Amino acid sequence: MAARVVGRAGRLALVVRSSAVRLQSRLHGSTGLRSGSQANFFPPLEDAMLPSGSFNNRMALITGGGTGLGRAMTATLSQLGAQCIIASRKLDVLQRTAEEISSQTGNKVHAVQCDVRDPQAVSQCVDQIEALTGLPDVIINNAAGNFVCPSERLSPNAWKTITDIVLNGTAFVTLELGKRLIQNQKGASFLAITTIYAESGSGFVVPSASAKAGVEALYKSLAAEWGRYGHRFNIIQPGPIRTKGAFSRLDPTGAFEKAMIDRIPTGRLGTPAEIANLAAYVSSNYASWMSGAVIRFDGGEYVSLAGEFNELRSVTPDQWKLLEAMIRKTKGS
Ligand SMILES: CCCCC/C=C\C/C=C\C/C=C\C=C\C(=O)SCCNC(=O)CCNC(=O)[C@H](O)C(C)(C)COP(=O)(O)OP(=O)(O)OC[C@H]1O[C@@H](n2cnc3c(N)ncnc32)[C@H](O)[C@@H]1OP(=O)(O)O
Ligand SMILES: NC(=O)C1=CN([C@@H]2O[C@H](COP(=O)(O)OP(=O)(O)OC[C@H]3O[C@@H](n4cnc5c(N)ncnc54)[C@H](OP(=O)(O)O)[C@@H]3O)[C@@H](O)[C@H]2O)C=CC1
pTM value? Predict the structure, then answer.
């Protein structure tokens, strides 16, 4: 009897596995995209979500605003009326982005060179910002560094480089601005861009995971401590959104993109414009009651990776009939 059950279960496992493979190739074909499935239900919208003028007379600092997601956030805030300052190491990149965005929106974007790892450079950068626009109302800590690497291959300097940019950089910018804002009795919205694996941890990006977890602790702590000075602190944890900076360092060959899209329930990557709309909302006065929030923005990837039984998505209705019959037959333990 036991042998018959094992034999049947084994055959069933084979059937389930081979139709899972057929299903996978039907879903993804050779393009690696799930076009024709969930992605069609959840197409991205690219236009600014908030009413025009939502950031009139407001100053916003975006670190790492010259490229990728920071650039998209700058474009959206500028379109909504903010005067923006973008800060990072590469002045030429910042200046090009600043010119392109201000020529599209008609609102000034300033470029300020700053290596966030250096507290003195951060202090000088804030001096420059005060002279240019006054202290900002909106601060987005978006600058980061990362690369995939087995932890046994990391040098002390590799560890230091990533944790300096991500954790110390965010802390230096936040503390320098926070202290000056408190002195000037001006409230502000602080937003940190972390990642979904700040919560779970992740192999192969251990310095980034450790530093982003630290950033989350910093922001949650300050939300509690500095609310009394009129400061709000929030966190967005993005899932995968294609940028040159991230993808060239995390999936340099493109070999993992298909697997990544497969595990995202909404069937696609996020877009820079989508996260820019969320960041604008969180940084706006429409969100003035939001502080200490951690917002996961990942198309469902995190829960999809976490659930023990989620692989059962590949079981077909016919296979479910078989499985259910087997389960119902099982009486007692
Ligand atoms: C299953 C696969 C999934 C695929 C996923 C695909 C897509 C993404 C999905 C989700 C993303 C989630 C989170 C994303 C988080 C991010 O932060 S993405 C943003 C990435 N952007 C950047 O990193 C931009 C800035 N980066 C840089 O400027 C550089 O890359 C760097 C961080 C290295 C800093 O540059 P620099 O200060 O010039 O440093 P050095 O070149 O001097 O290097 C310092 C030390 O680090 C060692 N090192 C450098 N690169 C590597 C490497 N690839 N592997 C190992 N070690 C490296 C270098 O040797 C130096 O150490 P030593 O002095 O030699 O000891
Ligand atoms: N794209 C994605 O899928 C995801 C991204 N994220 C997060 O989103 C944010 C933006 O990443 P993304 O746009 O993809 O990548 P980018 O590489 O385009 O952005 C990183 C930015 O950080 C700046 N930067 C790096 N080092 C320093 C430094 N020492 N001082 C000042 N600025 C620095 C870079 O500018 P410069 O070189 O001029 O210094 C660059 O503009 C990051 O916090 C990242 O961790 C999180 C999850 C997913």
Answer: 0.92
